[in-house]
Write a structure and sequence with these properties.
2 domains; OB fold (Dihydrolipoamide Acetyltransferase, E2P); about 325 residues; six-stranded mixed sheet; alpha+beta; 8 helices; Rossmann fold
Length: about 325
């Protein structure tokens, strides 16, 4: 039995279909990531799953029962599905512990553990108007989880945070879903946010699923250039490079990720044109004959003007 079944779900936005005939299933404890560019239909899909937006076609089944939309319920939403909006809000001038007590549906020992995992123990005796954005988000997450939902929906949980709070909430979400075995669906416009977290990745474009697969398949065998770009850098190989490195030709475009290009003692000569520093690694841009490629390397090894030898292993080439 599936926890969730999404069947031919559609939603109109004016004359345009924001969500167009989408179907997929989710197993208990499975983590699904929904990735796509802004306007691809991710949030609309998530809200319909949670019963917060009325579908124009299709249905959502949760534990084999249809999820009712806001036009069918006095209070929108499903009791066993928690939804964390990217525009999280808390009531002003409340003590944090008061809000959590009002929402609590779990024993005190479990609640204490939850507060620890969400990193909010030190915030319980603060007022809500005294909190930072990252602190508010962790409290809202705890408020959703303390209701003991069977499915947690996360809508762009990292989009409104600075780098420090973004890393904290990533750790919290990982720890929460792992400790409580929570089934979860996360929406993100940045595919790199979800690769290490998801069991299954669904890529949306213009309201349609363009690829659905395990993270490693999505990254190494993207269905098209759009999917490839969502999950990191890649190089497009010219016919000249394909001939030089004995890479089989195909009707589709040949591509390779920067980290798959090898710097070796022998190979095709290349000249380093640019070096981009990212702390733990660098991206170097090299010129090979008339072609430009990017490689990912250790920092402080290469500088502009260096001559190197590269190899492009054909087994790491993907076609889009």
């Amino acid at each position: 039995m599936f926890l969730l079944q999404v069947n031919s779900l559609s939603k109109l936005n004016g004359e345009r279909k924001a969500v167009n005939n989408i179907s997929f299933t989710q197993k208990v404890h499975e983590h699904i990531a929904i990735a796509g560019e802004t306007g691809s239909g991710k949030t609309s899909l998530l809200k319909m799953i949670g019963g917060l937006m009325q579908p124009d076609g299709g249905e959502v089944l949760f534990e084999e029962k249809r999820v009712e939309g806001p036009l069918e319920r006095l209070i929108p939403g499903h009791d066993a599905i928690a939804y964390l909006s990217q525009h999280f809000e808390l009531r002003n001038n409340y003590w944090v512990y008061e809000l959590l007590e009002m929402a609590n549906k779990i024993p005190e020992t479990e609640a204490t553990k939850l507060f620890s995992i969400c990193q909010i123990e030190h915030l319980l005796h603060r007022r809500t108007n005294e909190l930072s954005g990252g602190e508010k988000q962790r409290i809202v997450l705890a408020m959703q989880l303390i209701k003991k939902p069977k499915l947690l929906l996360l809508d762009e949980p990292f989009s409104n945070l600075d780098a420090i709070h973004e890393q904290t909430i990533k750790e919290v979400i990982h720890d929460v879903t792992e400790h409580f075995n929570t089934s979860c669906i996360m929406v993100s416009h940045d595919g790199k946010d979800v690769l290490s977290w998801a069991d299954t990745v669904i890529v949306l474009k213009d309201g349609v699923i363009v690829q659905q697969a395990a993270p490693s398949v999505i990254y190494h065998q993207p269905a098209n250039l759009y999917c490839a770009a969502l999950f990191g850098r890649f190089n497009i190989l010219t016919h000249q490079l394909m001939e030089l490195f004995n890479i089989p030709h195909a009707e589709q475009t040949a591509c390779i990720r920067p980290e798959k290009i090898i710097i070796a003692d022998s190979g095709m000569k290349a000249t380093v044109e640019k070096v981009f520093y990212f702390g733990s690694y660098e991206v170097i841009q090299v010129q090979v004959l008339q072609s430009t490629l990017q490689l990912i390397v250790l920092p402080d090894v290469y500088k502009k003007g260096d001559s190197i030898n590269i190899q492009i292993p054909s087994q790491h080439v993907f076609y889009c």
